[in-house]
Design a protein that fits this description.
Length: 393
């Protein structure tokens, strides 16, 4: 029996910053951002969104009457959670009307959280093939105004249902993992912006990639020639390309061309959104599934997950016959195309206003936000969420 990703949903806020505008404001050559970093735009989160609402907005379109009843495990992967105790998964369960009998919790290991959730969900479904799991990766990537990391910010969520006989991607039984205590990126409890040793983090990422991909091939008799494409955690798309290039000398010229072409498909969405932290690898997978012209059922895709701190994991997925979903692709392309472009002054104002964690009472007007799920404020230290059925698909 195959187990893997049955359906994928994606949500990103309806506002973005064009990185040519940011480059001009920061006295940088736009080509550094567009080519050197590999990003064209970055999502900007309004006050009416957070990790919970983005997760709900990503998951809502992939739920139907059948899978809704089967979901008995809800895993909320995030490193920008909204409460130090209560998990985002409980809010999500309630907002989406999922079964009360489900086990629901939050999981954190930097950008690796969603992968930990998927692996756990895979084992769960193997033992309970009549049931499904909902796994989300949802985050707001914030480094601070005028920092080196600013160009790599972003926000959004990817939601996945994990099932037996999945329609999209069957997951390998095995994976290769590597972890070590590394201070490359972290966020102390009193801070809303991450601290990072940027160039060191790039080096560790690439080291972990080579370690895990080689270990996977050695341990599980997988040849690199078996892989039609490689997908990466993409904090910014150039880093995936740099990691991919380190592996190119190990394959033929034809395979190099193929991998590079599939990589372009796998970064179409990420280039427009920025870092999603936990959801980033899965947004890249979604981009590959939607944008690749060469992918077909049976193709094997390598997935490299990386979470600072640090944890790396390499595993393989086999593309399933139902992987193309024209409705999903049109929905994502339309959502990205219809976003409102903010100028740098507006972005800086919104950046400074968000988030509102340290307030006992605040009211937020969600009216300008067209999303189905919105954050409306805090009452007596309790966060308030709303579903607006008129905005549902
Ligand atoms: P920087 O120092 O501003 O940039 O920081 P740079 O000087 O290294 O330049 C970047 C690239 O642009 C270089 O290319 C330049 O040559 C090129 P590379 O050598 O890398 O191939 N460049 C140009 N290209 C074309 N035209 C030009 C031009 N000028 C320069 N005119 C850095 C870059 C990524 C370090 C910074 O943005 C940063 O700190 N970002 C945040 C940290 C990060 O994203 N790390 C990634 C690995 S860690 C990770 O993935 C985990 C994470 O997602 C968190 C988690 O797990 O939770 C971050």
């Amino acid at each position: 029996m195959n187990v893997g990703i049955d359906k994928l949903g994606f949500y990103t806020p309806a506002y973005y910053l064009d990185l040519v505008d940011l480059a001009r404001a920061r006295n940088e050559d736009p080509q550094k951002y567009l080519v050197g970093i590999g990003q064209a735009q970055q999502a900007v989160i309004p006050q009416s969104q957070d990790a919970v609402t983005m997760a709900a907005n990503a998951a809502s379109p992939i739920l139907d009457a059948t899978n809704r009843k089967q979901i008995s495990l809800i895993i909320f992967g995030t490193e920008s959670g909204v409460d130090n105790s209560k998990s985002g998964a409980i809010y999500l369960q309630n907002l989406l009307g999922l079964p009360r009998s489900a086990r629901a919790f939050e999981i954190k290991q930097a950008c690796y959280g969603a992968t930990a959730g998927i692996q756990m969900a895979k084992e769960f479904v193997k033992n309970h093939p009549d049931q499904q799991a909902l796994v989300v990766g949802t985050d707001v990537a914030r480094y601070g105004l005028q920092t080196a990391g600013e160009v790599t910010q972003g926000s959004g969520a990817v939601a996945m249902t994990i099932s037996a006989n999945p329609r999209t991607l069957a997951l390998s039984a095995n994976s290769s993992v590597y972890s070590d205590d590394i201070m490359d990126f972290w966020r102390p409890l009193n801070r809303t912006e991450a601290l990072v040793d940027g160039h060191y983090s790039n080096d560790i990422y690439q080291q972990f990639f080579l370690k895990t991909v080689h270990a996977y091939c050695e341990q599980y008799q997988c040849s690199l020639t078996d892989l039609q494409a490689l997908t990466f955690h993409l904090p910014y798309t150039k880093l995936g390309l740099k990691a991919l290039r380190t592996l190119l000398p190990e394959v033929s010229a034809a395979q190099q061309t193929q991998w590079l072409s599939e990589f372009e498909a796998s970064r179409v969405y990420n280039r427009q959104v920025g870092n999603l932290y936990t959801g980033s690898l899965y947004l890249s997978l979604l981009s590959l599934l939607d944008q690749s012209e060469g992918l077909s059922a049976g193709a094997k895709v390598g997935l490299f997950s990386y979470g600072s701190g640090a944890q790396g994991e390499f595993f393989v997925g086999t593309v399933q016959p139902g992987f193309r979903d024209e409705q999903r692709r049109s929905r994502i392309e339309a959502a990205l195309a219809q976003r409102t472009r903010l100028d740098v002054d507006q972005y800086e104002e919104w950046f400074t206003q968000w988030p509102t964690f340290n307030t006992a009472n605040v009211t937020i007007d969600p009216a300008p936000d067209g999303a189905e799920f919105v954050f409306t404020g805090v009452v007596d230290n309790k966060r308030q969420y709303q579903r607006r059925p008129e905005n549902a698909d």
